[in-house]
């Protein structure tokens, strides 16, 4: 009977830990972006390109957040600022609820990205848009340059860190240690 109570208590404790471990997130709220040249000055990189792949490293996770990072691989066509590679990875949040820009594979975009620790980040709050809706940007920015460094992005990175999996492993370990402890005490 004590083992059952201990197991129930362990499961309840673990459930509380999992439920309260998620970070607090807020809905997206941002000011309208300025004109193209002003936003280019604020951005770390400005370029056009076609999305060739979207990588969701948390697709097998047990919990999802609108703020989960998504890696967007872009084949760069024209550059105005900040990069020189033919392919780049742009990181954005999973959903527009967390200010993530919701890219689609095989569509072309103009991307105004910030640079965060050598990582390009796109946001719903920037002037990033479908290329077909960016005629004002293209007119104001003028002609860009072609990429000078030929790169092929390999998105098949090894195992990734997933906090949900680590929480499950930790919780299971706590339960196993608790059961072993109770069984040993019972034998004494």
From TrEMBL:
Residues 161-187 form the Gram-positive cocci surface proteins LPxTG domain. It is found in: Secreted. InterPro entries: LPXTG_anchor, TIMP, TIMP-like_OB-fold. Gene3D superfamilies: 2.40.50.120. Coiled coil: none annotated. Its main location: secreted. Pfam families: Gram_pos_anchor (PF00746), TIMP (PF00965). Residues 1-27 form the signal peptide. It comes from the Bacteria. SUPFAM superfamilies: TIMP-like. The chain crosses the membrane at residues 165-183. Keywords: Cell wall, Membrane, Peptidoglycan-anchor, Secreted, Signal, Transmembrane, Transmembrane helix. This is LPXTG cell wall anchor domain-containing protein. It comes from Chungangia koreensis.
